[in-house]
Amino acid sequence: IVGCGKMGSALLSQWVSGGEKITVVDPMASDLPNGVSLVRDREEIADQRFDCIVAAVKPQMFDDVMPNYAGNLSDDGYVLSIAAGYSAGRLSKLMGDKPVVRVMPNLPAAIGRGVSGLCAGPLVSDAHMAHAEEFMSRAGTTIVVDSEEKLDRVTAVAGSGPGYVCEIARAYAEAAMAQGFTEEEAREMVLGTIGGAIAMASEPSAPSLEDLRNSVTSKGGTTAAGLNALNGDNGLSDRLHATLQACYDRAVELR
User: Which residues contact 103 (CB under 8 A, 6 or more apart)?
Assistant: First the structure.
């Protein structure tokens, strides 16, 4: 694993469950899981070869860093990239025409509840893709898409999604505090309410999200009044559409 920042660390915490021999190259990393080898510089593994190299440095560092690792990939190995906005084709050429699978994970991978999109790039075999899917499934749900354009849309919905959810929860808690609750009380109520509603909606036999909303909304009641203020003019819906579009547009720019 080349680089081990927040996302790399989140995935690593789940990847270690498979028993593979994992080496991290990162000059700043610390507190890695037991059994993971840590080296500070690529020269320490100059003569070693790996079945999979995970590209986990920042995308703007790829051009300078990743070519150095082309010789560390085994003949039938592949590169797994978790970077947003850096195309598989570009990375493949950078690595000497090696197979590349792009992945767009999100931060709940740290607790095994992530959602990751996967897309096969140049020269990727069925075996490479099967390994990438199994590897990522340890961190949560996987969704395979057939184009990098679609992967950019996964970025907009899921990759960046925890940021949207936490911002909504923050604003929700702030509003609760304005109703006279302490920060601790507001956080407990808001996160408990969101978590419970999501758990209910995630049940295999759960009705649609619209039906669940309606089940707590009596005509002329308190929930109806709140929902009217929240999205009666479609303002929330419009803003969420704009949010995903802005994220997607930026992902395309970075590509």
Answer: 80, 81, 82, 116, 117, 118, 119, 132, 136
